[in-house]
Amino acid sequence: MLLQTESLNKEYRTGAEVVRAVRSVNLAVDTGDFLAINGPSGSGKTTLLNLLGLIDRPTSGEVFLEGQATSRLPDRVLAGLRLRRIGMIFQTFNLISVLSAYENVEYSLLLLRMGAAERRRRVMELLDAVDLAHLAHRRPEQLSGGQRQRVGIARALAARPALVLADEPTANLDSETSQKVMQLMAELNARLGVAFVVVTHDPQVAQFARRTAYLRDGQLQDETGGMSGVQTGSARHPA
Amino acid sequence: MFKLALRGILRNRRRTLISLAVIGLGTAALFLTNGYIEFTYLGLEQMSVNQTGHLQVAWPQAWEENGDGQQHLITPVQQKVLAGILRALPQVKEYGGTLSLAGLIGTDRQSTAFVAEATDPAFAHDPWLLEDGMQLMPGDQERILIGRLMAKSLGAKPGDWLSLLTATADGAYNAASVQVRGTFSTGTAQGDARLAMLPLSFAQRLLNTGGIEKLIIRLDKTENTARVARELARRMKKAGLPLVVKTWQELSTFYRQIRTMYGAIFGFMSLIIFGLVFFSVLEVMTLSFFERMRELGTIMAIGTTRGQVFAQLLSEGAVLGLCGGILGLALGWLLGVGLNGANLTYTPPEMNMPVPLAVHLSAGAAWPPLVIALLSTLASTIYPAWRAARLSIVEALHHV
Ligand SMILES: Nc1ncnc2c1ncn2[C@@H]1O[C@H](COP(=O)(O)OP(=O)(O)O)[C@@H](O)[C@H]1O
Ligand SMILES: [Mg+2]
Q1: Domain range holding A176?
Q2: Is residue A143 part of a domain?
Q3: What does the DSSP assignment read for B35-71?
Q4: Which residues from chain B sit within 8 angstroms of residue A156, using beta carbons?
Q5: Which of B301, B100, B375, B265 shows the shortest CA–CA distance to A108?
Q6: Other C-beta atoms within 10 Å of A207: how many?
Q7: Could you tell me which of A78, A81, A91, A68 has the C-alpha nearest to residue A162?
């Protein structure tokens, strides 16, 4: 199993009030999977995704990445896992504004100390895959929203992660561009065998997933099917 | 990393320009101050060496404040031994004996106390600036140079004859007539009113001695001073001479006082500039990192460690400090060249002669300001960088 959670809980305390943003979530993601997490605003999707992406620590419970329990690993080790095993795609794209599209994709590879020739090949290959090779030297502000998100996708895939996490990747795009971006993710999922977990409150986007999980008030719904709270959707991918 | 640091700095050009201006102006100010101090040291070094020679050899008592130099003279025999030692030292350019004597000098209407230094005119020991008349010449006997103000108070001009009264080495009075050859200026009123210069052989005749009080030694290069001093002391000890060597630094209290004072001034200025750069860059860096919180959250989310974030932000400080420092040195250099070209002079307090106002633009004057620019910028980057590197990733990502 690539990713698995065990009674995952996250509480936020603001003064006397306690918000249980994620409650007893048991979730499993296989290699090459494409899971959509659906749910209304405030249902805990972002919180859950942050826990899965190892950028936040659970109040209780555990996240296993490739069998390894992560909740007690030191920051440095978590950073290494994020760098090598996990790719992140953000709702607001979050490209580094002073770097070109090319350099944004290259960033993780520099952290990995990859040789110049191989690095160059990898970056161009990815920019090709997202159909942006011709805009490699543009800065983010010179790209459209859809183009920026495609750079974001290429960046997430640069270090050849096993898992890509995306939080509302299409929320800032028009519906036509959204379709294309989701199409691209589904295609890369099929072609590269990288697992995707995409958080969205847009039911249309969920069509591209193999499976959809529903979150409400921090809890997974529909405790039916083979896996707790996970429903097999009508996956629509090429190939 | 460097590229990212540079881009990080160029992100907000206006703010970066302000930082660069503060760092650059601070560095330039320090560079010019240091250049002026170095220039002054060089001038003082020259002046001190002119006055005292590079080295002096004498009985230890000869330099004592109330010591009676004439009680402890270097005998003709000792002078011969010394001459042998000095000839064997290749760095020694020339040397000559001195005697000092005090007494009264004047006409039948006016007289004043004087302190005279007697040297061999052939040794050309002429520390003071000749104002009128001419220098003493080898072979001169009853001739004297007197200070500017002494000449004025006695109403004496070059060519006039004066009477001179002094005590001999064994305590008897001796009087002689001397002709004024010239008048000089020492730079201080005290010196101009009291000092006189005589030919050594004439002074020896007046004091009825063949001895000298001090031997003044000039070297080929000032930087050889310490080495030759050690070697000379060793050889004198071996030869059984009970004499002591002193260097010009030891002899010139003025030089040492100025060095201490300027050292303190430079230290104080460095501190002020350090503080100025520190607080302005601190502000700039804090703002600059705060603005980039989401970006910092992003790079941590995709696998940059906190240590790497800290190092990257710190390298921004280093690049800023280095650029500002180098710009400052360039600016200081330009201003310095302009200043040196303007041939300015000024008259320091306690002096009655103008001295040139110029700066010595050496690497030695340049590196301390550069180091201070770099250190102050780095120091002001450390805290904001540390705070930024400790951000919660989730909070940083949600920051707008
Ligand atoms: N840092 C926080 N402090 C306090 N409450 C929070 C914080 N982040 C999220 N929450 C709360 O947790 C719940 C889930 O939020 P979130 O995971 O952002 O939901 P979603 O992404 O589905 O909109 C919400 O009620 C939200 O108000
Ligand atoms: Mg959300």
Answers
A1: 33-57+74-215
A2: yes
A3: HHHHHHHHHHHHHHHHHH-SEEEE-GGGGSTT--GGG
A4: 302
A5: B301
A6: 16
A7: A81
- Tell me the CA distances in angstroms from B202 to A103, A134, A149, one per residue in order: 87, 97, 100
Helix, strand, or coil here: A17? Answer: strand
DSSP letters for A114-164: --HHHHHHHHHHHHHHTT-GGGTT--GGGS-HHHHHHHHHHHHHTT--SEE
Pairing state of beta strands B195-199 and B111-119? parallel
Centroid of chain to Cα B297: 54
What tens-digit pLDDT sequence spans chain B (400 residues)? 566 777 777 777 888 899 999 999 999 999 999 998 888 888 888 888 888 889 999 988 887 766 555 668 899 999 999 999 999 999 999 899 988 888 999 988 889 999 998 988 888 666 678 888 888 888 888 999 999 999 999 999 999 999 999 887 677 888 899 999 999 998 888 889 999 999 999 999 988 888 998 999 999 988 889 999 999 999 999 988 889 999 998 888 888 888 898 889 889 988 998 999 999 999 988 998 888 899 999 999 999 999 999 999 999 999 999 999 999 999 999 999 998 888 888 776 666 667 778 888 888 889 999 999 999 999 999 999 999 999 999 999 987 6
B239-243: long-range pairs with CB below 8 Å, 24+: B239/B81, B239/B85, B241/B78, B241/B81, B241/B82, B242/B59, B243/B57, B243/B58, B243/B59, B243/B74, B243/B78, B243/B82
Of the CA atoms within 13 Å of residue A186, those in its CB half-sphere come to 20
Rg, Å, chain A Cα set = 17
Ligand 1 pocket mutation pick from A47, A59, A200, A221 by most atoms within 8 angstroms of CB: A47
Q: Is residue A232 part of a domain?
A: no
CA distance A192 to A157: 9
Q: Which atom of ligand 1 is nearest to the CA of A14?
A: 4
- Residue in chain B nearest A76 by alpha carbon: B305
Q: How many CA atoms lie within 13 A of B322 on its CB side?
A: 10
Any domain includes A204: yes
Q: How far is the CA of A92 from the centre of ligand 1 (A)?
A: 17
Half-sphere exposure of B242 (CA within 13 A, CB side): 8
Ligand nearest the Cα of residue A15 is 1
- The pocket around ligand 1, CB under 6 angstroms, is made up of A 12, 14, 19, 21, 39, 41-47
Contact list, B8 vs chain A (CB under 8 Å): 98
Task: Let me know: does A43 contact A216? Beta carbons within 8 Å.
Answer: yes
Give the three-class secondary structure for B14: helix
Task: Locate the ligand 1 atom nearest the alpha carbon of residue A218 and give its number.
Answer: 14
Interface test with chain A among B13, B299, B302, B306, by most A beta carbons within 10 Å:
B302
Q: Where are the alpha helices (DSSP H) in B53-175?
A: 76-87, 148-154
Q: Is residue A171 part of a domain?
A: yes
ipTM of the complex in this document: 0.91
**Domains in chain B: boundaries:** 2-47+255-397, 60-242
- Are the C-beta atoms of A62 and A8 separated by less than 8 Å? yes
Q: Would you state the structure tokens that stand for residue B89, as one six-digit string?
A: 């030292």
